[in-house]
């Protein structure tokens, strides 16, 4: 009899974490490595946020808080969601968790029974299907097409819904493609959801502030308020405020549902770090102008990276509309051989050889449920991005 639970054997370790760790180990061993695998800003947390955390420590705010988060933070998050995203939530509808990943896990663990289905448009973040499996659910993957901008269509959603469907997971802007569901795209999906009152929506808006162009991000409840009573909106400070290590994610949902999330969290982690909560409070209530400056830098990097990737023989890359990822196709290099004799028969073989032969770390598209692509994070300096893309171009030119 195995000591390991069957549910854990259904899941695989995070591929993004694994590749990032391998890049760190190679760099520590003295190798010249440029990592484009990590999904976190290279910007530092703003000083006013760090200073708020220091003040909290000095003031002795180091005790347990309410499981759902401090009252000031939950109130501030509700006001932030209203101010910046047009969402009308109250403090008792907010739960503060240890990163966005815990929000997703809480929601799935609190709601799924064996055999319940969760629709996930692919490409998708690597953790979505595994969290569903851990909660005894069945991920239903819907493969989106590049000609639709990697967005799920209403027809695809309607075809995927069954009597067992409990959730639709939606991520915009998308990790890994940078695709954005604008109002017209969301309206098409929400019209379908209104036809199926048994389907709830978990919308992952973690990158919502990282948008290129003048149009602000849209989210489900903002577009269709009639879905409010069966939508969980997830957001946080990790990406927009350069606070990945602070581990603060938030959920907004009807109060009766939020109480169930709080009950579950109370028997797992309980409250998130009190100091991180003080920092998050400062982030959502303090100056916001630095975000636009950060997005401007990301846009410049995006243009450099996409242009250079499209100049690499055999690669093709769409222009991301948000987040800080590019998702180029490797269709034009599959079947070719590297200078070291490696046959590139899969996207994973491509990124493995790219790391071994050029020192550039990226993540294969299969990890994001879409073979034939790879993900590049451009959340690093323009100088390193240019060097990495130059190496990628040289690598592609060397293939035979």
UniProtKB/TrEMBL annotation:
One GO MF annotation is: transaminase activity
What Enzyme Commission number does this protein have?
A: 2.6.1.-
Under the heading Pfam families, the entry gives: Aminotran_1_2 (PF00155)
InterPro entries (UniProt xref): Aminotransferase_I/II_large, AspAT/PAT-like, NHTrfase_class1_PyrdxlP-BS, PyrdxlP-dep_Trfase, PyrdxlP-dep_Trfase_major, PyrdxlP-dep_Trfase_small
Record key words, sorted: Aminotransferase, Pyridoxal phosphate, Transferase
Which cofactor does this sequence's record say it needs? pyridoxal 5'-phosphate
Top-level EC class: transferase
- Annotated Aminotransferase class I/classII large domain ranges read 31-392
Q: Which reaction does it catalyse?
A: L-aspartate + 2-oxoglutarate = oxaloacetate + L-glutamate
Q: What is this protein called?
A: Aminotransferase
Species of origin reads: Neokomagataea tanensis NBRC 106556
């Amino acid at each position: 009899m195995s000591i390991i639970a069957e549910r854990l054997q259904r899941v695989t370790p995070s591929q993004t974490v694994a590749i990032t760790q391998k890049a760190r180990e190679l760099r520590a061993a003295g190798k010249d490595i440029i990592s484009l695998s990590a999904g976190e800003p290279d910007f530092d947390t703003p000083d006013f946020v760090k200073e708020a955390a220091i003040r909290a420590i000095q003031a002795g705010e180091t005790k347990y808080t309410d499981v759902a988060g401090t009252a000031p933070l939950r109130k501030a998050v509700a006001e932030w969601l209203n101010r910046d995203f047009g969402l009308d939530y109250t403090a008792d509808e907010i739960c503060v968790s240890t990163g966005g990943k815990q929000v997703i896990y809480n929601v799935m663990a609190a709601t799924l029974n064996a055999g319940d289905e969760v629709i996930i448009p692919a490409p998708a973040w690597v953790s979505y299907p595994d969290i569903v499996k851990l909660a005894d659910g069945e991920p239903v993957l819907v493969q989106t097409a590049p000609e639709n901008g990697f967005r799920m269509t209403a027809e695809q959603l309607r075809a995927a819904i069954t009597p067992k469907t409990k959730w639709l997971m939606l991520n915009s802007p998308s990790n890994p493609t940078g695709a954005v569901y604008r109002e017209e795209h969301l309206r098409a999906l929400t019209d379908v959801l209104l036809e199926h009152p048994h389907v709830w929506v978990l919308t992952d808006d973690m990158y919502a502030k990282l948008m290129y162009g003048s149009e602000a991000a849209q989210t489900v409840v903002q577009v269709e308020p009639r879905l409010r009573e069966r939508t969980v909106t997830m957001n946080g400070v990790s990406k927009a405020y350069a606070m990945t290590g602070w581990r603060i994610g938030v959920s907004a949902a009807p109060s009766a549902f939020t109480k169930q999330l709080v009950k579950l969290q109370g028997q797992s982690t309980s409250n998130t770090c009190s100091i991180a909560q003080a920092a998050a409070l400062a982030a959502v209530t303090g100056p916001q102008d630095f975000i636009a400056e950060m997005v401007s830098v990301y846009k410049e990097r995006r243009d450099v990276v996409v242009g250079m990737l499209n100049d690499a023989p055999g690669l093709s890359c769409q222009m991301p509309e948000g987040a800080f990822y590019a998702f180029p196709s490797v269709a034009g290099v599959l079947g070719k051989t590297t200078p070291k004799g490696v046959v590139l028969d899969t996207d994973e073989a491509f990124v493995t050889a790219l790391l071994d032969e050029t020192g550039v770390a990226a993540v294969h598209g299969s990890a994001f449920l879409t073979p034939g692509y790879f993900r590049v994070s451009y959340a690093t300096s323009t100088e390193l991005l240019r060097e990495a893309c130059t190496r990628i171009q040289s690598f592609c030119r060397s293939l035979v």
